[in-house]
Specification:
With 266 residues, the protein is an alpha/beta fold. β1 and β2 form a beta hairpin. Helix content is 27%, strand content 17%. The strands form 3 sheets. Strands 5-4-3-6-7-8 form a 6-stranded parallel β-sheet, with helices on one face. It starts with 8 loop residues before the first helix and ends in an 8-residue tail after the last strand.
Amino acid sequence: MVDSCGSCDNCKADLEQYCTTGTTLTYASPDPRGLGQTPGGYAERIVVRERVVVKIPDGADLASTAPLLCSGITTFSPMRHWRLKSGQHFAVIGLGGLGHMALKLAVHRGAEAIVVPTSEDKAKYAYAVGAGDVVAWHPAATDPIPLVEHMANRFDFLLSTIPFPFDISPFLLLLRQNGIFVNVGAPGAIADVSGGALWNQQRSIAGSCIGGMPETQEVVDYCYTNAIRPQIELIRPDQIDEAYLRDKRKDVRYHFVIDLASHRTG
């Protein structure tokens, strides 16, 4: 975010990301001053309102701190809102940029964390971070969730980071009484949801965006204090095209961070 109205109920409640008059985002967002659209964050300097500035702790590594303003707050906010706590059963669906931060944060909270990645090659990393189990899932599979048979009614909290629509109905069966499925990934339609699967065991489906400014500051400070860092690969601006193609191939673990100062010659 670079701006919000500051006067609606959500802004006053420190939930600027849900500004009812329209949050001004960093990328391709209408500028309320009538100056077209915001041009994005790929610059050495941008102009923002003071209230949306985040203080980076002294001594923090900037490269590994930057993704906390995206995947860090996006996964931290729902855990904080729905009070994920020690001993609860948590599963993250997808283990990319968002998913690997969700796993780290959930493990640090003391939750019993399970990972459902879309490829088997991420299992070793997931176990190293602290996952209790890893069950690969392929969205195109005819039988998408074989784990339903032995994991039904198990989880308090499912967090989906999958960036495209998929059939979530089998996942709902994994939720225990009063469990919640939170989508932070797919922006499109969520289809094939059975009303019976929701009222059975009083399950819920919800969505979450980023976080308000106090909450964003909180996750930066929390991760710095507890040495929670995203796994990154630092690249130069002239490597962006290559990085885009690698991202399409899922050949990144788990964030590219662009060093904009690296193009300077002196």
